Task: structure prediction
Amino acid sequence: MTAFFHTIPHMLDKMFEFAKYPAAWLAGFFMFIGNALVGGKLIIYVVVLATVIDLCCGIAVSVKRHKFTLSELMRQTVEKLVVYGLAIIVFMVIDSLIKSGTGFDIALTSGVVGVVIALTETWSFLAALLILYPKNPLLKLLQKALTGEIARKLDIEESEVAKILAREQRQRDEKGRFIKKS
Result:
């Protein structure tokens, strides 16, 4: 029961963070449509894959920070999979009740819940990847958006994260060329 009270608020916090960005809405829309086109089961695989990737990235961040906590990460991952799995199963049952009552055959509720869960886990592992690879140009695009998530992962203030990420940026001269570090 504690997993439920830990995972759901955590997921809602992340959901409110990524919901601010149109790209997240667009990704969610395409995941929902893709899930509906293949019969409503794709989202289960996407959620499991995103959760496992988040676990692997979490382990890599722990190793990089020399704070290796495999048992803690495994416990959290198992809790997430149980809570996420139960949520998706409950909403799949609701979808089947809707289908039997209306004949409307689409994974509407389970698709929406699955997309939110998948985006939550994607948000989490993108923050971990930014910690691991702060100079990656693609991840730099998400830097400001992921500052809050990175602060939670590193257990520091958001202002401190901004300072760390600013230091990681390579300096440029007046012509835009990179300055060599001395």
About this structure: The two ends are 54 Å apart (CA to CA). Residues 70-102 form the longest helix (33 residues). The mean pLDDT is 78.
